[in-house]
Write a structure and sequence with these properties.
Length: 271
């Protein structure tokens, strides 16, 4: 009996640890970042230039993501930098002037890739006042068509994307007026997190809205930084931000800005 219980316990432990395997890579990247980078790129020193030795890591991400919006090219660019600090490839010339160029860091290649992936989609620490600083910088430079991160701005999306959303006649019977509707824009090859999102209710439909940079969930991930995006709408029965079986949706690739895109919710999520 005793051995049976031990066996049971062992298999429970085995299965629970196994089910976390998917998050290991992310955690490893975070651990490696903390071991190799946080000393200079962390929040110590706050936003006070005199107390900092390097830009906050969130600023690094912001500068790279504008030019390298998809994960692959981002990871390559950041790892390339860690392997060799080549000033001609810098995305942060201002930082080189302020702090001097980053000293060489010796990290094995596979770890570098994990760190870069973590910087791309991890939840990064940023010093207090960082977001405010970014906002002020944007406003200061707002008159010029240049974002703080780079001079590459996709003009078609800077004014936002206008959408008209309705539910198809066939699916109308399946929704109730208080069901939530998520209307969003996402990068095509980028992070799964929406670049802009608005929450409405079925009773608000049909609706015309403009998705723009102000609806960004993160300042470093803006609609205007992506040349092509997907736009869509999903009616959620559960109210959860992640699509569930039975949710109703529509999704289209949008290339052009400046015109109203009509979308009719006509499909059902089957997972
Ligand atoms: C000893 C301090 C120090 C450490 C440790 C450090 N960095 Fe840096 N890093 C800097 C400084 C200073 C800058 C700003 C100047 C520059 O851009 O070279 C910088 C800039 C960067 C940039 C932007 C480079 C550019 O100009 O485009 C990236 C990317 C970066 N660091 C990634 C990392 C990563 C990832 C790690 C950990 C593996 C790391 N750094 C560790 C000091 C450091």
């Amino acid at each position: 009996m005793k051995s049976l219980i031990i066996l049971l316990m062992a298999s429970i432990i085995f299965f629970t640890t196994n089910s976390f395997a998917g998050t290991d890579k992310y955690e490893e990247g975070e651990k490696l970042y903390k071991a190799n980078c946080i000393a200079c790129h962390g929040s110590t020193g706050g936003m006070d230039l005199k107390k900092r030795i390097a830009p906050p890591i969130a600023a690094v991400r912001m500068h790279y993501i504008d030019t390298y919006p998809d994960k692959n090219s981002f990871v390559q660019a950041v790892s390339g930098w860690i392997e060799k600090q080549d000033e001609s490839k810098s995305m942060m010339r201002g930082a080189i002037q302020k702090f001097n160029i980053m000293p060489p860091i010796s990290v094995p290649k596979e770890d570098v890739l994990k760190i870069a992936a973590y910087i791309y989609d991890g939840k990064l620490d940023s010093p207090e006042g960082f977001e405010k600083h970014v906002k002020e910088e944007h406003e200061k430079k707002g008159k010029k068509p240049v974002s703080i991160a780079s001079n590459k701005v996709n003009k078609s999306n800077t004014k936002g994307i206008a959408l008209r959303i309705n539910v198809s006649d066939e699916l109308k019977a399946q929704v109730s007026p208080t069901d939530l509707v998520f209307i969003y824009a996402k990068a095509i090859n980028g992070p799964p997190m929406p670049l802009a999102v608005v929450k409405k209710q079925v009773k608000d439909l049909p609706i015309e809205i403009i998705l723009n940079d102000e609806m960004a969930m993160m300042p470093s991930l803006k609609l205007s930084s992506f040349p092509k995006v997907k736009v869509g709408a999903r009616i959620s029965k559960s109210g959860r931000p992640i699509a569930q079986n039975g949710d109703l949706f529509v999704e289209k690739v949008s290339v052009k800005g400046g015109e109203i895109i009509s979308l009719e919710i006509d499909s059902i999520v089957v997972k």
